[in-house]
Amino acid sequence: MRKYVFVSFMVLALVALSIASAGADHPFVRGIVITVDYTDYYLAGPADAPNGAKDVPGHDWHQIAPNEIVGHHYNTGPFGKAQWWSSDAPDGELLFLVHSIIDTWSPEKAVFYFTRGYVHYHELVSVADGTPHPSKVVWLRHAAPISFTFDGGPMPKMGHPVSPGVDYEFMPNWNMPYTAETH
């Protein structure tokens, strides 16, 4: 019961943060450019965002601190492909509220982030030439506001039912070491 209350609180806090952060002066954007270590990066993904920017399909983002990003994950795929992430949620439905932390990968940090719901990390690629960041990744925690089946996207074999709260099964790669050479 305590875990359910905590997860519910976290989902509500993320919703409130998303709404508060989305003011006219600081909108959520697709193809966000993140400055890390004095270099501009995209989140790795297809170049289907405005002006050919790269991004994770179906996401928009808002940077709330130098190493912190919040996002919305919609049921839309690359280049607007309908219902790409879920076969039973409507096209364009908000599937997850995402909290992200930019940090390095290490075995100790992987366990630390995993225990807090950050089960997936994503690569950063240079805006200038597409090279991956040499050491940093974006740790992602996906919190669902609704129930649906997560059965699409780039890893459909990892499909699973999702209920409101933090999704600890969201494409888990937290325990896979990151090196720029392998990504």
Question: Summary?
Answer:
The protein is α+β, with helices and mostly antiparallel strands. The protein has helices spanning 2-21, 107-114; strands at residues 34-36, 39-43, 59-65, 68-74, 94-104, 120-126, 132-144, 148-150, 160-162, 165-166. It has one domain (2-52, 78-104, 122-135, 142-182).
Write up what this structure looks like.
The chain is of the alpha+beta class and 183 residues long. It has one domain. 15% of the residues lie in helices and 33% in strands. The chain has 2 helices and 10 strands; from the N terminus they run H-E-E-E-E-E-H-E-E-E-E-E. The protein has helices spanning 2-21, 107-114, and strands spanning 34-36, 39-43, 59-65, 68-74, 94-104, 120-126, 132-144, 148-150, 160-162, 165-166. Strands 1, 2, 3, 4, 5, 6, 7 and 10 form an 8-stranded antiparallel sheet that branches. A two-stranded antiparallel sheet has the order 8-9. Strand 1 and strand 2 form a beta hairpin. The longest helix is centred in the N-terminal third of the chain and has 20 residues, at 2-21. The chain is globular and about 40 Å long. It starts with a helix and ends in a 17-residue tail after the last strand.
